Amino acid sequence: MMGLDLIFGSSVERGPKSRRIYLTFDDGPNERATPAILETLAGERVPAAFFMVGDHVRRFPMLARRVADAGHEIGNHTEHHRKLLLLDRRTVRRELESAHEAIVGETGVRPRTFRAPHGHRSIFLKSIAADLRYTVFGWTFGVFDTALPGVETIRRRVRKRLRPGAIVLLHDGDGYDPKGDRMQTALALPEIIKDARERGYEFGSLAELHNGTHS
Ligand SMILES: [Zn+2]
Predict the structure, then answer these.
(1) Inter-residue contact 55 to 30 (CB < 8 Å)
(2) Pick from 46, 28, 68, 21: nearest CA to 189
(3) How far is 154 from 147, CA to CA, in rounded Å?
(4) Distance 141 CA to ligand 1 centre (A)
(5) Active site residue 26
(6) How many CB atoms within 10 Å of residue 77?
(7) How far apart are CA 70 and CA 47, in angstroms?
């Protein structure tokens, strides 16, 4: 993927090939799914990363703060979950900076990571992410949990695709609808964690992968 990296900048799409995987939750915070997911993660002592939409952070600041207080990584996922690819430089910058300000303002945590909505990176992203000192993350696999395929299907898809170093893309929110339903993902999480542990995986924090050292 060197060619794309030259245009869009590098993004981290997996960790080192150890028995370690990385859970990530996009498009929150969300009033129902985020607390449920936090509860499972706390009970199982599993770290995760949450790539938040700035507009949702402003709407649900207490939830954003709960994620931060639990010690999970908080990433920037733009202000309005817009596909960056065709936007002009000024708009891309505003999407990143607004979400950055929302996260810092509401949680007190300075995000260090960014993930592009739908993976649509922009030619302007590299310099803007560098200005904000972000590591840009992609993912190893997703399971289309946003299509609400059912709790058991979400669980099974994750189990099938697990591999060393995988960055797993899941969703605790809907990028557009602040009331979107992501409870299937929340309900699948306990079994996802159990399945991974049975296969000898442990859970890492994306902080270990900052700056693309393992990309
Ligand atoms: Zn998203």
Answers:
(1) no
(2) 46
(3) 10
(4) 14
(5) yes
(6) 29
(7) 9
Tell me, in angstroms, the distance from the centre of ligand 1 to residue 117's CA: 4
* Helices of type H across 45-150: 54-59, 61-69, 89-107, 125-131
Structural tokens at position 149: 């395929």
CA 185 to centroid of ligand 1, rounded, Å? 14
161-175 burial: b if 16+ Cβ within 10 Å, else e: ebeebbbbbbbbbbb
Transcribe 140-193 into DSSP letters: SEE--GGG---HHHHHHHHHHH--TTBEEEEESS-SS-TT---HHHHHHHHHHH
pTM value > 0.90? yes
* Catalytic residue, candidates 56, 77, 100, 171: 171
**pLDDT one digit per residue (tens) for the chain, 215 residues:** 556 777 778 899 999 888 999 999 999 999 999 999 999 999 999 999 999 999 999 999 999 999 999 999 999 999 999 999 999 999 999 999 999 999 999 999 999 999 999 998 899 999 999 999 999 999 999 999 999 999 999 999 999 999 999 999 999 999 999 999 999 999 999 999 999 999 999 999 999 998 644 43
